[in-house]
Amino acid sequence: MSNRQAEIAAALDVTPPFKDDAAVAKEVERRKAFIKHTLRSAGLKVLVLGISGGVDSSTAGRLAQLSVEELRAETGDGAYRFVAVRLPHGEQHDEADAAAAMRFVAADEEATVNIAGAVKGLAGTVSHLAGLSEARRDFVTGNIKARIRMVAQYTIANAYDGLVIGTDHAAEAVMGFFTKFGDGACDLAPLSGLVKGQVREVARFLGAPETLVMKVPTADLEELNPGKPDEHAHGVTYAQIDAFLHGEKVPAEAYDIIVKTYDKTHHKRALPFVP
């Protein structure tokens, strides 16, 4: 392990590789305990999370549902509950995966907020988008989608006096692969420190369908590149990112991309900057 690998892994509090199923089970219990403690410490009883149809939100959502079920059993208070929110932009091309994720999560309450109108309304009132190239405008609008989705989640959480869950984990954090004040905004992030492969291991342990566990990850924010795989945006694979974070040797090109991207995206992990 290089000094930079060790430094970055420590900064992101990366979880060591799981040795066996017992280690996965222990980690699941630890993260459920974290969710329950966070909710009770806030004096609140509702959790909210957007479910996209990918493995990250499916895993975080199922952990949230199990946590509130345990809280109800432990306290006798039926007010503890989890709200899973579908947040499509018009028609979702992977609708079948999103529906499968909702069935797996089995939330106490389900809601759908189609963000297309809000995104179109905001984009249409900002004149600064007009002079951009088609590709740049598509990219900026993608970030509007991510931020509108978080506004919707916080609106529901505010209505119920609850907390919003985020799905960030170490493999995304190291690449700065999230939208500031969009999917990067949340009250608690129960997957933090896990690499992508570990998120899949947890999902599989919780009983997620293999199609969700191994689904090709995509932020799916760009109209010009619908379903664009994360790895195409990264320039490296999640297997390489995971190996880097766990101190294993990776190809020099992948090493350089990960380190340079980590340094370049520092501003996204250290907000706000202060004197």
TrEMBL record:
Protein name, UniProt field: NH(3)-dependent NAD(+) synthetase
Pathway(s) where this gene product acts: Cofactor biosynthesis; NAD(+) biosynthesis; NAD(+) from deamido-NAD(+) (ammonia route): step 1/1
Gene field: nadE
Keywords, ordered alphabetically: ATP-binding, Ligase, Magnesium, Metal-binding, NAD, Nucleotide-binding
Residues binding ATP, per UniProt: G50, I51, S52, G53, G54, V55, D56, S57, T167, K196, T218
EC number: 6.3.1.5
Family according to the record: Belongs to the NAD synthetase family.
Protein purpose: Catalyzes the ATP-dependent amidation of deamido-NAD to form NAD. Uses ammonia as a nitrogen source.
Classification via NCBIfam families: nadE, PRK00768.1
HAMAP family registered for this protein in UniProt: NadE_ammonia_dep
UniProt binding sites for Mg(2+): D56, E172
SUPFAM superfamilies cross-referenced by the UniProt entry: Adenine nucleotide alpha hydrolases-like (SSF52402)
Oligomer and partners: Homodimer.
Catalytic activity: deamido-NAD(+) + NH4(+) + ATP = AMP + diphosphate + NAD(+) + H(+)
Example of a GO MF term: NAD+ synthase activity
Ranges for domain NAD/GMP synthase: 28-272
InterPro entries associated with the record: NAD/GMP_synthase, NAD_synthase, NH(3)-dep_NAD(+)_synth, Rossmann-like_a/b/a_fold
Source species of the chain: Pseudomonas typographi
Binding residues for deamido-NAD(+): R147, K180, D187, H267, K268
Keyword Nucleotide-binding: yes
Class in the EC hierarchy, top level: ligase
A Pfam match: NAD_synthase
Keyword Magnesium: yes
Protein origin, superkingdom: Bacteria
